[in-house]
Amino acid sequence: MSSVTRIHDLPQHVGESVTLEAWLTGSRSSGKIAFLQLRDGSGFVQGVLPADAVDEDTFQTARALDQEAAVHVVGTVAEDVRAPSGVELHVTGLTLVAAGNEYPITPKEHGVDFLFEHRHVHLRHKRPWAILRIRDLVERSIHDFFAERGFLRFDAPFFMPTAVEGTTNLFEIDLFGEDTAYLSQSGQLYAEAGALAFGKVYTFGPTFRAEKSKTRRHLLEFWMIEPEVAWLDHAGNMQLQEDFVAYLAGRVLEGAKEELALLERDTTVLEATAQGGFPRMTYDAALDALKAAGEELTWGDDFGAPHETILGDLHDRPVFIEGWPTQTKAFYMEPYEDDPTRVKAADLIAPEGYGEIIGGSQRIHDLALLERRIAEHDLPSEAFAWYVDLRRHGSVPHSGFGMGLERLLAWFTGVNHLREVVPFPRMLTRMYP
RNA sequence: UCGGCGGUAGCUCAGUGGUAGAGCGAUCGGCUGUUAACCGAUUGGUCGUAGGUUCGAAUCCUACCCGCCGAGCCA
């Protein structure tokens, strides 16, 4: 038997006879001709079987195939302007490997709940195919970006002794009735230890938030990338974020043209993003812009989702909001020397209503100040002893940020809900499959 | 937790007090270089659950369950 060709590579084999290992996504047939819609994971192609060009058994096999039937297909690759990919397959041989057996997801419209109840097979369809291939490309690009810049990938633990920020709810894990652990809501504190050991590190792992959020922007379990860099200040931190997001946008525009087209994604904003040059707004300027838009806010308020949408829509690429009131941010953030009511932190807000995709800051490196902040926030000093200890031995300014992978992907792909960018999303109302 | 909307055939929905419907899917047949094909036939139901009002309830009332969207929280 000849070697197997993947559908993605068919344009390089025009005129040749190839073998595919594929599944049937749909078909049409008559007494004279049959059309088979085929997929193999790498792409999609149509198989054509004129009745007078194949033997009777092959033709009848083709007509009897049901949706999601697994098949071996032999055929000749032919250019055809009517085909979306430019090529189709003139089938000469066909073997049924396994029938589709009343496949549940029919070619007509379905509701969200039905599709995610059948997510284990929904993954076979074009929309998840395009989205999850972009997810894969972005994940690889993240590793490439940091590898090219000399970062060490540094894995933080998932079981934690306590909360990093003390405010959000954590999932509790019972340790055999003898102790309690919590699922990680951030690897940042550990990444700080890594930065002081290796200079430049990043974590890439799952994050768990026990919040009863039921919106398109929230999952119980999502993936976060948290770089942490020693000797890096607030301004350098924002530049790193800008370079990072611009790089990722560029990689997707270059490497996922077919997927973006399938998703009908307008790439105007992504093209602007890939150029960098992200605008920066101070918190005060953002506050003024929101007031001008009719929002009732006073200095010191944090911004909600509708506010982020307004701010994001002011620009054609992501915007930094910096200079936040100290009271709105986490205990470990470095205050400005000349104004301790503000911290050296920035949020990066995506345009098009996708909200905050990155939160970052310069971290406190002064021992006494950090100890004071931990006390002010009523945090358990024993649990943070090792974190404080980092400030005792060669402490230097350092900065980092956390990027929500799914938030970025939802924005890149233009999907409405985070659940679409994860193979098996975990939400309050979705634990199956 | 709060607010809005919803739950009727495998799927998407119509039906708002008087015999439970359509399209799609599936099955069978016809037809076609088709692209969500098309034409005909067949198939298809604890109307979310429990109780109540009524001669009669998918429809009105009460409680509960589940889902969707949003808020808060955040990435």
How many angstroms separate the termini? Answer: 37 Å
Percent strand equals: 25-35%
Helix content range: 25-40%
Order of helices and strands: EEEHEEHHHEEEEHEEHHHEHHEEEEHHEH
Kindly name the structural category: alpha+beta
Per DSSP, the total helix count is 13
User: Are there runs of 5+ residues with pLDDT below 50, and where?
Assistant: none
Rg estimate, integer Å: 26 Å
Mean pLDDT: 91
Sheet having the most strands: 9 strands, mixed
State the total count of DSSP E strands: 17
Summary, kept brief:
This protein has 433 residues and is of the alpha+beta class. The protein is 30% helix and 28% strand. It has helices at residues 56-64, 112-117, 119-122, 126-148, 188-198, 234-255, 257-262, 268-274, 283-292, 305-312, 367-376, 385-389, 405-413, and strands at 17-29, 33-39, 44-50, 70-79, 87-98, 152-153, 159-160, 172-175, 179-183, 200-208, 221-230, 280-282, 319-325, 335-336, 339-350, 355-363, 398-404.
